[in-house]
Amino acid sequence: MNLLKYQILVLMDKYHKVTEVAQALNMKQPTVSFHMKSMEKEMQTPLFHAARGRILLTEAARKLLPYARQILSLETAAMQALADHAGRAGKRIRIAADVVPGSYIVPGWVTEYTKINPGTYILLEIHPADTINRLLQEGEIDFAFVHDPLLSDSITCHPVFRDEMGLITSASHSLRLDGLSLKETLLHEAFVISSSPSFLHSYAKTWFERSSISMASVNVVLESGSLEAVKHAVSAGSMISFFPACGIRGQEEGLVWHALPGTRPAFYEIYMMHGNHPLSESKEAFKSFILGQTGQTMGN
Q1: CA-CA distance, 35 to 41, in Å (whole number)?
Q2: pLDDT digits (tens, 9 = 90+) for 76-134
């Protein structure tokens, strides 16, 4: 099949409407319908079926779908490699990151990289992990930075950053985590929790469970999807929150970071992911740069 047919298959899985697929491809509806029938004839099996006004993929089409995405991703990488070679738009890199690395880790790396690679244009988007995984599989981004890597034969994963999780309080708040009853201490505190779904929300829930504290018994007074809103709420009152050490710059924010109680530091890791296919020259250079930072950030 030609690339256009693979594009129609991928877009139909996204939009479920011939009209919207035609619009996305700047084509007429009858042309899209013609190619859909041609695909089924070529593959000798039904690939599409209508249900309640939507076009859905058959089981056979769903088996073909990941290969179609990979073929389109390879085509994009090939064209990007040619653009690199020709000196046109070859330094455009698309990145998606979870909220912690996207807010506190990746921007610093990007700044340093662009200093030594002038002319590079980098697009950084912040998304939940599920969205990042989908964008990477569909070839919509070049690199992803997440806490929980996607396990797939089509994805390459590298650990690139290690940090410690802790609790933050205002500078005037007297939090004692070395008392005899940690559970009693925390049940008397007011918490700000990052909204679900997020790494910080999952981390807090898991930590409470491991400490034999029911999440339902915790006095959560505020949930927010903004890390800066979480910090502002904590610094303005007597609340506390789980927060990564990399997100706290010191006393100038009116915050104090406390290590979580336990015999060992509460480390967590950030992973870089990219498609398991040849990278263009500029993207290979970016990957090498990030991996070069790993020795400085994974030594804890």
Answers
A1: 10
A2: 888 777 776 655 455 789 999 998 999 999 999 999 999 998 888 899 999 888 899 98
Please give the backbone phi and psi of residue 98, each rounded to the nearest 5 degrees, phi first: -65, 165
Angle separating helix axes 3-15 and 29-43, nearest 10 degrees: 110
Quote the pTM value: 0.67
- For residue 153, what is the DSSP state? T
Taking the CA atoms of 150, 152, 154 and 156 in sequence, report the sign of the dihedral they define: positive
The number of CA neighbours under 13 Å toward the Cβ of 199 is 22
Calculate the CA 178 to chain-centre distance.
35
Helix (H) or strand (E) holding 246: none
* Rounded CA separation 8/86 (Å): 29
What backbone phi and psi angles, to 5 degrees, belong to 241? Answer: -155, 150
254-268 residue pLDDT tens: 888 888 876 566 788
